[in-house]
Specification:
single chain; 0% strand; transit peptide; mainly alpha; mitochondrion inner membrane; COX7C/Cox8_sf
Amino acid sequence: MFSSAIRAKMATSFAARRGFSTTRTQFGSPYHYAEGPRTNIPFNPMTKRFFWRYWAFMVTGFGSPFAIAVWQTYKTK
């Protein structure tokens, strides 16, 4: 118990000595992405056909395992 207290004290003093620094964001950088709502997803939900594409993706992804299971069940050996 005594050694864990020393270790905890050393860990906090070590973190306090570290020189953390930040730099100003560079907007010309290729690694700076836009921020805000709907910017962290890899598709655009504001298009006309998004509703149909979304449900086609969901039905395909959720229904495929069941369709494969039914096909395997009825397949002749």
